């Protein structure tokens, strides 16, 4: 990694969030908090849990993520931006902090200390992405936006999900606006869906990569960073075993709940 120099601000470090910077799915944490406040039904929460399990165990699926985004937008219709901003702060404090992958977080801090521009690019709701970025001391965060009228959400996405090719578009827009040299920049992600984003920079890093990204990263001689700790591997294995043996939603849900009760450190 380059040392601090007058040109450091022309170098960017772009981070995916879910399963790259933190274990789990930030959108599920938001759904869980909305449920606790009476804005999500149990059915909505169970749906979010199922999609999160698929994501954590099987990797991202563009169709499922799009479906989840549309459904979340409809459920959130009528909520105020102020309320969602407050909820995002709470999600950061209660859920994000205990789930940070320390190895990836150290990379983020190294980039910041070197004077690089650090950006989070995620499919998670835009307010949550902005809050996480601000609280981490990053330059900014870009997430999936929802249409707003006045101070209220109207139940529709604004544009497309920040996912796959959408992330590349965002990355290039940030680079152009903030005069970032992508050939000297870094990008971090866990998913093969982000190969286009990783390929757009000079220093791609596959973090906790899924099978497809692992194979591709090895072929391209990219750096591979395993940020998972022993407890993450045990938790993941326990849930997978429940899926194989039980095969039912109730079993999967129980396994997820048990995994959430596993000891954590801040």
The protein's oligomeric status is single chain
Number of strand segments: 8
Tally of contiguous helical segments: 11
SSE pattern: EHHHHHEHEEEHEHEHEHH
- Average pLDDT value? 78
Shape designation = globular
SSE-based structural type: alpha/beta
In angstroms, what separates the terminal alpha carbons?
A: 27 Å
Query: How are strands sequenced across the largest beta sheet?
Result: 3-2-1-6-7-8
Radius of gyration: 18 Å
> What percent strand?
15-25%
List segments where confidence is low: pLDDT < 50 over at least 5 consecutive residues. 55-59, 233-266
Binned, the helix content reads 40-55%
Note down, in words, how this protein is organized.
- Helices cover 52% and strands 15% of the residues.
- The longest helix is centred in the N-terminal third of the chain and has 17 residues, at 42-58.
- Mean pLDDT is 78; it is low at 55-59 and 233-266.
- The chain contains 11 helices and 8 strands.
- The strands form 2 sheets. It has a 6-stranded parallel β-sheet with strand order 3-2-1-6-7-8, with helices on both faces. The protein has a two-stranded antiparallel ribbon with strand order 4-5.
- With 266 residues, the chain is α/β, with parallel strands linked by helices.
- It comes from Scrofimicrobium appendicitidis.
- This is HAD-IB family hydrolase.
- Belongs to the HAD-like hydrolase superfamily. SerB family.
Give a quick summary of the entry.
With 266 residues, the chain is of the alpha/beta class.
